[in-house]
Design a protein that fits this description.
The complex is a heterodimer of chains A (115) and B (109). With 115 residues, chain A is mainly β. In chain A, 0% of the residues lie in helices and 48% in strands. The mean pLDDT of chain B is 88. In chain B, the strands form two sheets. In chain B, strands 2, 4, 5, 9, 10 and 11 form a six-stranded mixed β-sheet that branches. Chain B has a five-stranded antiparallel β-sheet with strand order 1-3-8-7-6, with no helix packed on it. The chains are: A mainly beta (115), B mainly beta (109).
């Protein structure tokens, strides 16, 4: 596609509910990142994929968070048993090559509200 | 690991200049700069690779001093459209990317 697409745009979840957030990167983009952005803060690194390989997941806040990119294109971020502190905007970004030489294109994000 | 930006916020009148600084405690492979408007995704401005280079993008340019692990973003003759929050992004390792603390820039008529 022309840009990075994320869905849903907004998600309201009851505490304890599982959610799945989808990211459809630009076709052919090798690198894919997930970030969490709290209100008024900068994006915080969650995890990084190069094609289907998850090379770094050190930013995932707990084992309730899980990300996958099975075919090296679409990625899903899953949050189990959501808590109120999970409320944030979740941003996905992709890049043509390995990220040391290319800028990232961000999706519009998914705003998750846990009530 | 998060780079520190200064100032935290700045208010300019149209046509004025501004400098935003980004400082990291880690050795860097590259520095990115992004602008984010309220409620929108960050937009890529430019990337600087190690080598002390300076790049330009219209009236926005940046420098990268890898020895000092610092980068600066220069905005000249600011326009209303420059308003937003500016983030630097740094790569201390091969598989992570950290955004800075952010600088809120407001340009007023």
């Amino acid at each position: 596609g022309a840009g990075v697409s994320q869905s849903p745009r907004y998600k309201v979840a009851k505490r304890g509910q599982d959610v799945a957030l989808r990211c459809d990167p630009i076709s052919g983009h090798v690198s894919l990142f997930w970030y969490q952005q709290a209100l008024g803060q900068g994006p915080e690194f969650l995890t990084y994929f190069q094609n289907e390989a998850q090379l770094d997941k050190s930013g995932l806040p707990s084992d309730r968070f899980f990300a996958e990119r099975p075919e090296g294109s679409v990625s899903t971020l899953k949050i189990q048993r959501t808590q109120q502190e999970d409320s944030a905007v979740y941003l996905c970004a992709s890049s043509y090559g390995t990220h040391q030489s290319y800028g990232y294109t961000f999706g519009s994000g998914t705003r998750l509200t846990v009530v | 690991q998060q780079p520190v930006q200064s100032p935290q916020a700045v208010i300019l009148r149209e046509g004025e200049d501004a400098v935003i600084n980004c400082s990291s405690s880690k050795a860097l492979y590259s520095v990115h700069w992004y602008r984010q408007k309220h409620g929108e995704a960050p937009v890529f401005l430019m990337i600087l690779l190690k080598g002390g280079e300076q790049k330009g993008h219209e009236k926005i340019s940046a420098s990268f001093n890898e020895k000092k692990q610092q980068s600066s973003l220069y905005l000249t003759a600011s326009q209303l459209s420059y308003s937003g929050t500016y983030f630097c992004g740094t790569e201390p390792t091969g598989n992570q990317f950290y955004f800075g603390t952010g600088t809120s820039l407001t340009v007023i008529p």
